Amino acid sequence: MSWRFLEEKTTADVAFRADGRTLEELFASAADAVVGTMVSDPLALGRRESRTVELSAESVEMLLFELLQTIIFHKDAQRLLLRVDEVSTRQSPAGWSCTATLRGEIIDSRRQDLLTDVKAVTLQGYRVARTPGGWEAEVVLDV
Amino acid sequence: MGQEGSALGVPKDIRRLSDVLWEIPASRAKGMRVPARIYADEGLLSRMDDGVFEQAANVATLPGIVGASYCMPDGHLGYGFPIGGMAAFDVERGIISPGGIGFDINCGMRLVRTGLTLEEVKPHLRELVDGLFTRIPAGVGAGGALSLTGDELREIAEKGARWCVEKGYGWEEDLGLTENNGTAQGADSRAVSAEAVERGRGQIGTLGSGNHYLEIQVARPDGIADPLAAKAFGIDLPDQVVIMFHCGSRGFGHQVATDYLRSFTRSMEGTHRLRVPEKGLACAPFDSRDGRRYFSAMNAAINVAYANRQVILHRIREVFSDVLHRDPGELGMHMVYDVSHNTAQLEEHEVEGRRLTLLVHRKGATRSLGPGSPGLPDAYRKVGQPVIVGGSMETGSWLLAGTEGAASVFNTTAHGSGRSMSRSQAKKQFKGAKLRADLEHRGIMIRAASLSGLAEEAGAAYKNIDEVVSVAERAGISRRIARLTPVACIKG
Predict the structure, then answer these.
(1) Do A11 and B421 count as a contact with CB atoms less than 8 A apart?
(2) Which residues from A are below 8 Å from B280, CB to CB?
(3) Which of A8, A77, A101, A113 supports an S-S bond with A40, CB 3.0-4.6 Å?
(4) Which chain B residue has its CA at the smallest distance from A14's CA?
(5) Dist CA A30 CA A12 (whole Å)
């Protein structure tokens, strides 16, 4: 489970590749990439605040999109930087869904090394795919 | 002229139409309905991201596009449209696409003049900058400038800057100096999700981050290209101090764009039988329930951005007044203009001798009305619309004027200097603390919410703004009035 920025893929925006042995790991690492765009050390965030979300989408690609958008929504609406603590995904005839517990803390520039605000997940070159080792996603964020 | 492009990375089939205009023919790729035209000189063209050409060509495949898909001289890689992209669509046969407007709906520029010279301001500069940095929240998730209910934000979404003036955050005259008088018609807050309201509720009066900034600038005598036009815009003192800022609709607009991008992705192929070359161009027919609903929501976001910049202007006047112990009116703090560079607007244009109403998408491109155009404030009727082109914090910015020649490109010109280096590259090459020290040594005071973010915005990460505005002038789509150089910069 890891993520890294793709330096040459964008000029004004931020691109990253995330992976995981399972879909759940991919979701957690992709969420960390979004948080890691906004704060220098996502792992150092506290766990004081918690939110549980239920999300659904027609495809696994759009389910990840919904999860990442949820992270961005909480950053603006509640000034929270949240990481994925637990997530479970399900596939049904209607599509995909997940339950995620997000934990983190209030934005505080005195305690966090804040970087760049993320506006949105774009669909430019957006990709979620199975790999021999599990799952991988490429995402471009508008910042 | 028909000359082929020769620069590295530039498509082989690109044709040179003039000194500063290039064309990718519609025959280049299957599905292109019109050519793609790019404003650039050879230098700018050769340094453009390869993806710009592909994105401009992709836009040319969209249904109902009129004339050509255009890219301005500050063009660079975007999502869907290139940044710097412009396309006009027939309102009956054409589409509307969030990827042609941007997530930051009505991201734009506002320029405010003062009756002060640099000499008068210099002794107070530190106090002014600290005051502005405190009163105008900037950076990741910045909020708390105004405390609003959801209903109040929905009211703002329908009234725009007018709401602010009614509540005392500005002067009546500010509205007439804002594009669309500060209120986009056709906004309907019922087309906006609860999530967008929640995201935006605490963010009116905030700057944001990334390339958003607020600068105290100086119009130096050697930077005035047209003294008469500059005077018409209120720039007529030697070393006159002005304030320029760049921001948009914050989380409200970002969520509106996201909501409809998601919705169009679902409805495009099934309901509307539309296929696009890439997901970033997800769209709906403009003349459909989906298209009209997005247009209403987008206009709501346009209004939120006008209100955001209006409240920021109010804070600027408060800070200057507090520090200099004079009324903002006495300080001559009048607006020059407020103009967007991320919108789709219904406009009338003449096409092949016929007057048509078109939906003009501008994404990182500025409206540029020539002298005598309807919609101009009376004071600017003879000189044309002020076009505010933001540059990097190191090199300065430009105040331009719209020209009659811009009619050939649906009254459009450039919006900024345009990035030439990725954010990661910039962070590797520059260190925020050293950059800040260097700039302060050069007389540019810096306050930044993030030093890392500051490094991403280093001047060398951008194209040469003088080259960009020179190309726009040679193309006849705007002309240079005054170069504005920063003495203080607040970065989100």
Answers:
(1) yes
(2) 122-124
(3) A113
(4) B423
(5) 20
Chain A: residue nearest B194 by CA? A77
**Sequence spans of domains, chain B:** 108-420+462-491
Which two structure tokens, joined as six digits, stand for B404? 């009659």
| Total number of domains in chain A | 1
Collect the ranges in chain B with pLDDT lower than 50. 1-8
Q: What is the CA radius of gyration of chain A?
A: 14
Domain B108-420+462-491 coded CATH 3.30.450.40: no
B95-to-A60, A85, A130, B67 alpha-carbon distances in Å: 28, 41, 34, 15
**Which positions 404-423 of B are in contact with A (Cβ < 8 Å)?**
419-423
Tell me how far apart the alpha carbons of residues B73 and B20 are, in angstroms, rounded to a whole number. Answer: 9
User: What is the pLDDT, as a whole number, of residue B414?
Assistant: 97
Return the pLDDT at B166: 98
ipTM of the complex: 0.95
CA–CA gap between residue B146 and residue B486 (Å, rounded):
28
B260 touches A: beta carbon within 8 Å: no
Q: How does pLDDT run across B389-424, given as a tens digit for each residue?
A: 999 888 899 999 999 999 999 999 999 988 888 888
A28: domain CATH number is: 3.55.10.10
pLDDT tens digits, one per residue of A69-119: 999 999 999 999 999 999 999 999 999 999 999 999 999 988 999 999 999
pTM of the model: 0.96
Q: What residues of B are annotated to the active site?
A: 415
